[in-house]
Every structure is written in C-alpha cells, then in structure tokens.
Amino acid sequence: MAQNASMEDFEALLNESFEMDTPAEGSVVKGKVIAIEAGQAIIDVGYKMEGRIDLKEFANPGENPDLSVGDTVEVFLRQVENARGEAVISREMARREEAWDRLEKAYADEERVDGAIFGRVKGGFTVDLGGAVAFLPGSQVDVRPVRDAGPLMGLKQPFQILKMDRRRGNIVVSRRAILEESRAEQRAEVIGNLSEGQEVDGVVKNITEYGAFVDLGGVDGLLHVTDMAWRRVNHPSEILAIGETVKVQVIKINKETHRISLGMKQLQDDPWDAVEAKFPLESVHTGRVTNITDYGAFVELEPGVEGLVHVSEMSWTKKNVHPGKIVSTSQEVEVMVLEIDSAKRRVSLGLKQTMRNPWEVFAETHPEGTEVEGEVKNITEFGLFVGLEGDIDGMVHLSDLTWEGRGEDVIGDFRKGDMVKAKVSEVDVEKERISLSIKAMDGDPFADAIGGVKRGSIITVTVTKIEDGGIEVEYEGMKSFIRRSDLSRDRAEQRPERFGVGDKVDVRVTNVDSKTRKLGLSIKAREIAEEKEAVEQFGSSDSGASLGDILGAALKGSDD
C-alpha cells in the first residue's frame, strides 16, 4: 500500500514538473539557432524541442535576413509537436505579438511609430511596423496627391497610428499627419520671421482662377489676382507662370490660421495718384475697351486706370441697346472725362461727348420750313416717326398730316418703310425733338383763301344752308357759320328764314382763328359799324337830326 502511494506521488510530481516547465502553445518563447540549412533556420526552444522557420521571416521588407548560428531569437510556439515530432514555431508571429504590444502602447501615448511601405493594395498601401502590418490609405500618404509612390517603398520612416483593432488585426496609419505636423512647425518658424509690408522672393507653385500660391520657403502665400497689377488681369496666367520666381510684398498675416496675403502691385507706383493731373475734366483721350457689361463698358486710359462709359453716355441716338452693340472688347475708342472720384478710384467717361450732338447739327442745317425726306420708322396712335440725317427721328403729329379732315382718319394710309416728304416745323435740341409737317408741303389752303382778310374786314359770302340756329355761308371755299343772334342788329330781323340758299351777303370779320381754321362772321357787327361810321360823317341825333335822316343822307351820299 505504501509502495503504491509513493508511485502515485512521484507520477503527480512528474506531471506537475512537465506542466510547469513546458511552455504553453500560443506563447512567445526564446530559442537558439543551432543550424541554418535549405533556406531554413533550426531553432532549439528548449525542453528537448526543436523547430524550423523560413529565413525570410527574419528579414525586414526589402532586406536580407541577418541571422547566424548561435543567435538567440524569440519565436511564437504554435504547436508543441507535429507529426514529425518537431515543434511548430514562427518568427513572424512572434514579431507580430511583440509589435502589437509596442504599438498599443504607442497608440495610447499618441506617439509616432517607425515602419516601411512594402506593398500596394486597393485604396492605398501596406506598411510593416516591425512585425505588424498596417494599412496606409492613399489620401494619407502626403499632403498632396502622390502620383508615383516608388521612391517611398521600403524606406523606413515615421507614421502616426489613426486607428487599431487587435481582435480584428486592423491598423490604419498616416504619413500625412507627420508631414503636416512638421510642416506646421516649419510654417510657424517662417511666419515668425515675416512681417507685414516686408518684401520677399517666392516661387509660384500653383495658379488658379482667383490667384496664385507662392512658396516663401516652406510656407505658401496667396497672391490674389486683384493684387497682381494695377490694371485689370483677367487670369493670373497672363502675367505669371508656375516655377517663376517673383518679388512680392507681405500684405497681411493671420497668426491663427497661418494664412499669408501677398501683393505685387504694391511694389509699384499707384497710377491713381496722378489721375486728376493727367486726365482733367472734359479732356478727350484714346482708350481700349477692356470689359462690357449690361450697364456700360470699361475703358482703360492707361495701365491700372479704367473708367466706365455708362450706357446712357454711349450714343446720342441709341438709347435702349446693349453696350455690346455699340463697342467691342479691345476696340480703341475716344472718350471724354466727365467725372473723377479718386477716393473711390472711379472715372466716369463719355463716348457720345466726343461727337457733335446730331440735334444741334440738324438745327443748324435744317431751319424751320426746310423740306426733308425720310422713311417711316414707326407708327403710333399720335403720329408718325420719320428717319432723318444723323440717325435721328422726326415726328409728324396727327394734326400735321392733312389740312382736311382728321389725322386719325388718314394715318391708316401710311405704312412702315414708306418714303415721305415733310417740312421742318420745330427743332427742340434740349428735348431732342424734331416736329415735322406733311400737310405743310401743300401750303395752307386756309391762309391762301383768306388772303388779306383780317379782323374788321367786310367780305361778301354766299349762303349755303339755312338752319334754326343760323345760316352756313362760304367764302373762297371756306365754310363758316353765322349764328341767329348775329344775323341783324334788329332782333325782329334775326330770322334765318329771311335768307335763301345762294344769297350774297356782306358780313364783318370778327375773328380769324388759324388754329381751328375758322372765320368769325357777323351781319350785326357790319350794321353796327356802318351806323357808327354814318353818325361820325353825317352828324348825330343829338344835333336834332333823326337816325333815319342820317342814314338817308349816308345812302344818298353813297349813291352820288
């Protein structure tokens, strides 16, 4: 019984010894290189166990293995014994476990880690971090897109760990973060040595629509297109080229964002300082059209000095057209200086002022009564517009279309494009208006008819119609109407029916209205005038003579 008990104790102690001394599978153990043969290293890991590892597992990416017999190395024990009685070990897995421990600490402390890019995969590259493989996204390689990553392959360099998951075996690193940090330090140093107003040399690195980026030796500054020259610059490529060295002035430095604004024109004299002296008001200059807008055209008087010709100052006659139909870009034009505002850096120019006012010219060459001929340009409800010399229009009002009838009735006889003749009746230069008369071409039948007839004249008319309110009469083709109250000074004789159509009647002209083209006539006024004249010649009733005696004497005198 005692012998059995001691044997059991010995077996338990032996098993315990094996369990304590034999390393567990899945752990990292130290081994000794006892031989190198057939591209493999034979490692003695103790406990009478040996294993084989390919030599390539001892080499860093892009390097040859540095291993000799007798070296002590750490290996990962995957299996204590395989079918051939050998231990299954791995140097790569040992390095990985070691690396993960080291990388987790670095990630927690936000420290950089060294590694080497050794492969290309979809979306980026693979990086060896001393045993652990990490993913380097393409966007994290450099601060700018990298077209050729060849020079970076196999090069040992620092990386920043962005994310890692040991359970899934994922590590994401960034080279860009290291470069940006270094770049930020460099920028801070360069910016610290710069001051606003300082002149520096730089190299043009990039050109955009709005300006150019200039390298000042580790830090970029923006040279905006408006600060390149005093003149208008449509695109920076007009005066700059990538790689060109330029002298610039530091305009502004933002210490917080590290943004630097640069200028080139600030190193030149400001042409606006001498604008008022070189371009006095009402002086005429030749300039070049640089830009055309809906409201006018910009004209360059000299490099850096532009003025605006407003659309209202472009033409005497073209009022509602786009400026592009009057001038074109790069065209040389003569302009007059109308106004200068040096504070706002504005010059108002006039194009039409360099040419004579066509209405003034027309007024000088076409006095009232001049006969003109032109094309009907437009027909409106109040008259015709006729094209005249100097690209201007004259208007024929409805009342100037015809002597007879209404203008509304005859305007329909005209068509756009018809050639018509008319006489100038009025020219208003200030209001830019020319009044024409077509009816004046035929003379004035009213004026011709009345001849020398004036107010107070006695004329003979012919009765053409009898009405209740009076009689219609005619004189030289002109019709007039005598009211009942004007048929006689005697109320009993103010009867229209006592006249007959065709009767000849002497009447007195009481009014000549050229505007309405009517004569005011009265038999009553003639009789009163005759009575007054007879009284003056043959006496008055106050001297004892009766009115009948006076009139009788007057009639007898006229018979004699």
From TrEMBL:
It holds the Pfam family S1. Gene3D superfamilies: Nucleic acid-binding proteins. One of its GO terms (molecular function) is structural constituent of ribosome. Residues 26-92, 110-176, 197-265, 282-352, 369-439, 456-524 form the S1 motif domain. GO terms for cellular component: cytosolic small ribosomal subunit. Keywords: Repeat, Ribonucleoprotein, Ribosomal protein, RNA-binding. GO terms for biological process: translation. SMART domains: S1 (SM00316). It comes from the Bacteria. InterPro entries: NA-bd_OB-fold (IPR012340), Ribos_protein_bS1-like (IPR050437), Ribosomal_bS1 (IPR000110), Ribosomal_protein_S1-like (IPR035104), S1_domain (IPR003029). Binds mRNA; thus facilitating recognition of the initiation point. It is needed to translate mRNA with a short Shine-Dalgarno (SD) purine-rich sequence. PANTHER family: 30S RIBOSOMAL PROTEIN S1, SMALL RIBOSOMAL SUBUNIT PROTEIN BS1C. Belongs to the bacterial ribosomal protein bS1 family. This is 30S ribosomal protein S1. It comes from Flavimaricola marinus. The gene is rpsA.
